[in-house]
Design brief:
Blueprint lengths: L1 E4 L19 E2 L27 H6 L29 E2 L38 H8 L3 H13 L7 H13 L3 H13 L7 H14 L2 H12 L9 H13 L3 H13 L7 H13 L3 H11 L4 H13 L7 H4 E4 L6 H23 L13 H13 L10 H12 L1
Parallel strand pairs: 2-3
Antiparallel strand pairs: 1-4
Length: about 400
């Protein structure tokens, strides 16, 4: 069996691969960074993410925070900084404030949903025959694989409408990766009418099943009030925490912001320091800057406690089936199978070297998951490389050099 990575990404996360109100950050399915948007106090109107840039967000530093207005913190709860960091939501998808459409209104160009799996017409272009047979029988992973081929243009012409059709069939049959991918299409309006309500529903479905990217994207949308008219910071914090626990750096950043401002969670600068520090270890320069700002507001005792919490933190292992579809070798064309095997071998070697040198990449399984991504970023930072998690010739050269030292 061959695992196909669901491309966990940090920021709103786009399927395959993303800043929000007065200041918080999001992710999308290709590796993306912070999206724009504005995280403000519950009484304020959120800034539409489609009209605010990352630079706009970072310029909004003068806004007073909830932590500033609270009494000085003791070791029981962190002190407030003289100037609290802004709430910056790192996002995964770009424009996320579309008008909701009626449930009865069909999406533009969308094919009608077919309910009976045995009646699905499988295009002749779907090869090999084993994949077509599995899809005809209603296998969720097979339907997901066909949807992703249309979405990525792997052996088929790219077609977002077809991708949405097949991904919906897979999501209806319990595929969390498909629900995540389909949620991203509805969030962006790719192949379907843009529908924030449906995107939130699909992200929540995938997140509850354990899809880490969906946890982050759902949190960003809730923080922006997408699909619910007003921000729900408490639930957003819940999902930022879940994604942060699984190693998503942008969720860690956002959770630190929420703790600094006391939005959706208790104001607690020790927790804020912890999450900024963890995100900084993963190569986030902005998180390192915010960590240093919080440091200035902490007593020695609270600072030591924050450092201990950050040092003891370990990423939780994600649910494998919720984050990637398992694709049998006999569903893949021979040329694609060879390329996948080669890629897995390279990633496995990278994981072994990282683990041998003190960078926890998790099991050497050849899959680029959250722990491997975090380990690569940490190694890149320690080696003076751009900490973006990309597997490049420069990374491989640095790893081999470290391994032979």
């Amino acid at each position: 069996m061959i695992d196909t990575d669901n491309s966990i990404i940090t920021g709103s996360i786009k399927p395959q691969a993303p800043e929000a109100p007065s200041s918080l950050e999001q992710t999308t399915p290709t590796p993306a960074k912070r999206a724009a948007g504005s995280m403000v106090s519950p009484a304020e109107e959120p800034v539409k993410s489609s009209t605010v840039t990352t630079r706009d967000i970072l310029d909004m530093l003068a806004e007073p925070s909830a932590a500033q207005q609270a009494p000085a913190k003791t070791s029981e709860s962190a002190q407030e900084p003289a100037v609290a960091p802004p709430v910056i939501v790192k996002q995964a998808s770009e424009n996320r404030q579309p008008a909701a459409r009626s449930q009865a209104e069909p999406a533009v160009g969308q094919r009608p949903k077919e309910l009976a799996p045995f009646d699905i017409a499988i295009p002749d272009t779907i090869k090999p025959a084993d994949l077509a047979a599995a899809a005809r029988a209603g296998d969720a992973n097979a339907l997901y694989e066909i949807g992703m081929r249309y979405q990525e243009g792997r052996g088929l012409k790219k077609n977002a409408t077809e991708a949405a059709f097949w991904l919906e069939l897979a999501a209806d049959r319990g595929s969390a990766p498909a629900a995540f991918q389909l949620g991203s299409l509805y969030e962006k309006g790719a192949g379907v009418d843009k529908d924030t309500d449906k995107a939130v529903t699909l992200y929540r479905k995938a997140a509850e099943a354990g899809n880490v990217s969906a946890m982050h994207n759902l949190a960003v949308m809730l923080a922006n009030g997408a699909g619910i008219d007003v921000p729900d910071f408490a639930e957003a914090a819940k999902w930022f925490r879940a994604a942060a626990d699984h190693g998503i750096a942008d969720s860690q950043f956002n959770l630190a912001i929420l703790h600094a401002r006391g939005v959706g969670v208790d104001a607690d600068l020790v927790q804020s320091y912890k999450w900024f520090a963890i995100a900084a270890i993963n190569g986030d320069a902005e998180a390192a800057k915010r960590r240093n700002e919080v440091t200035e507001a902490l007593s020695d005792a609270d600072l030591n406690r924050g450092k201990t919490l950050a040092a003891e933190w370990q990423a939780e292992e994600p649910v494998p089936t919720a984050n990637r579809a398992v694709i049998p070798a006999d569903w893949m064309p021979q040329e694609a199978l060879a390329a996948t095997v080669d890629k897995q071998a390279i990633v496995r070697d990278i994981q072994v070297i990282l683990n041998d040198n003190g960078f926890d990449a998790g099991p050497a399984d050849g899959l680029l998951g959250a722990k491997t991504d975090a380990a690569i970023k940490a190694f890149q930072k320690a080696s003076g490389l751009t900490a973006d998690g990309a597997v490049t010739p420069q990374l491989v050269e640095a790893l081999l050099e470290r391994n032979s030292a």
